[in-house]
Design a protein that fits this description.
Pfam families: RNase_PH_C
GO molecular function: exonuclease activity; mRNA 3'-UTR AU-rich region binding
Family: Belongs to the RNase PH family.
Protein name: Ribosomal RNA-processing protein 42
Strand order of the largest sheet: 8-7-9-10
Structural class: alpha+beta
Order of helices and strands: EEHEEEEEEHEEH
Number of strands: 10
GO biological process, one term: exonucleolytic trimming to generate mature 3'-end of 5.8S rRNA from tricistronic rRNA transcript (SSU-rRNA, 5.8S rRNA, LSU-rRNA)
Largest sheet: 4 strands, antiparallel
Radius of gyration: 20 Å
């Protein structure tokens, strides 16, 4: 994912974003749903444009735009989503396992997948092991599924953004 939009002054100042996640209900895997939520939240994030207005005593002076339409956006189109596979037995995995399902398997593999099907992260969770064939099948499945989920998520985000009468709703209604 492109970090160019975070740079204010190359080599000196960057924008930093901290994302807090509050789980109200989880019917699947926590990593998977949080990756989707964070990508959607960052897609919708708008920050006031920062302009360097001068220098005073060696320190740069910044101005934040007060125009609500003069904003910067993050380019999260290529940000990955996470796909979790729970190994039940060798050759058998469950994708996006619930917390109850996670009690049935000794190990999970969390796979980060970019929209172009590139696997950009792999993390094993739990005390068990995954055989090479099972891992290879999980990676292959994640690559296909991750690209599809990325495409569907971006399509939905763009569709919602283009709605003329877009209603902003909180989580309670």
């Amino acid at each position: 994912f492109s970090t160019a939009g975070l740079v204010v002054v190359p080599g000196k100042y960057v924008k930093a974003f901290y994302v807090d996640v509050e789980i109200l209900e989880c019917g699947g895997n926590l990593f998977d749903v949080v990756s989707l939520g964070v990508k959607a939240a960052l897609y919708a994030t708008r920050t006031p444009r920062i302009t360097i207005t001068g220098e005073d005593g060696g320190e740069l002076e910044f101005t934040l735009s007060d125009n609500p339409t003069d904003v910067d956006r993050l380019d999260v189109v290529n940000a990955p989503v996470l796909i979790t596979h729970l190994r039940i037995s060798e050759g058998v995995t469950v994708v996006d396992p619930t917390s109850e399902e996670e009690q049935c398997g000794p190990v999970s593999v969390v796979v980060g997948v970019a929209p172009n099907s590139t696997i950009c992260a792999v993390h094993l969770l739990g005390p068990g092991t995954i055989g090479p064939q099972t891992l290879q099948a999980a990676l292959k499945g994640s690559s296909v599924l991750g690209a599809d989920i990325n495409a569907r998520l971006l399509k939905k985000l763009r569709q919602e953004e283009s709605e003329p009468e877009r209603r902003i709703r909180g989580f309670l209604g």
